[in-house]
Design a protein that fits this description.
Length: about 240
């Protein structure tokens, strides 16, 4: 079954993050700290913290930096009071966009996100205007060349919802948010560790873009991701190479 490859987006995002690693690390530290403050420092009892630490390690953050962020959050040493806010809007061409933020200043974040949409030909919507187009899922992505048949059998046995082979020969395993860690751990134990794993919002229907239309959406997404308060950006755009 052919599908929309997460691999192309991962490669693009990794290249962008490599250029601004300091800013990426500050966002990852913020997520680890907030997760530890809200749910405690025990990753076995705090799935959000476990996912945040996995992301931090994938971003090549040193273990001692991660440990300090966990202790700061779990021990109440972090004095920042961060709010979680989700903005919804449209990029050029009617592409739906979700923007997840962690901020200690709602007015600043709202102003910066609104400016980003306006500057790049989009517009900010109201709560619920595009969220219904997305669903929360676990996604485990494998590089081109992965044995799809072997992965399919194993992943479904572990509780995955679907395994999708893509045109570029990469493979994506989809799970419910609740089963994500079970499937992830099971695949690692069977020597099938994914190249990238996350719980994300995926669009029910993708809109394929190429050329100038794709570039406009990428410019908006890159600008949003560069804002200090923005943690994640999701769209329903299927960008061609």
């Amino acid at each position: 079954m052919a599908g929309h490859s997460k691999w192309a987006n991962i490669k693009h995002k990794k290249a962008a993050n490599d250029k601004k690693r300091g800013k990426l690390w500050s966002k990852l530290i913020k997520e680890v700290t907030v997760a530890a403050r809200q749910g405690g420092g025990d990753i076995s009892a705090n799935p959000r913290l476990r996912l945040a630490i996995d992301k931090a390690k994938a971003g090549n953050m040193p273990n001692d930096t991660i440990d300090r962020a966990v202790k700061r959050g779990a021990g109440g040493e972090d004095t920042g009071n961060f709010d979680e806010i989700r903005y919804e809007g449209y990029a050029p061409g009617g592409i739906a966009v979700l923007v997840d933020c962690l901020t200690d200043n709602r007015n600043r974040t709202a102003s910066e996100v609104r400016h980003a949409f306006t500057k790049h030909g989009g517009n900010l919507g109201t709560d619920g205007s595009v969220a219904y187009l997305f669903q929360k899922q676990g996604i485990l992505s494998y590089a081109p060349g992965t044995d799809e048949d072997a992965l399919l059998e194993l992943a479904l046995e572990l509780g995955a919802d679907d395994v999708v082979g893509n045109d570029d020969e990469s493979v994506d395993v989809y799970t419910s948010a609740e089963e994500f860690h079970t499937v992830h751990d099971g695949l690692i134990k069977k020597d099938q560790a994914p190249d990238h794993a996350e719980i994300a919002f995926t669009a029910e229907t993708q809109i394929e873009l190429q050329g100038e239309a794709a570039e406009k959406v990428l410019r908006l997404v890159d600008f949003l991701e560069d804002l200090d308060d923005v943690q994640e950006v999701y769209t329903n755009a299927n960008l061609t190479d």
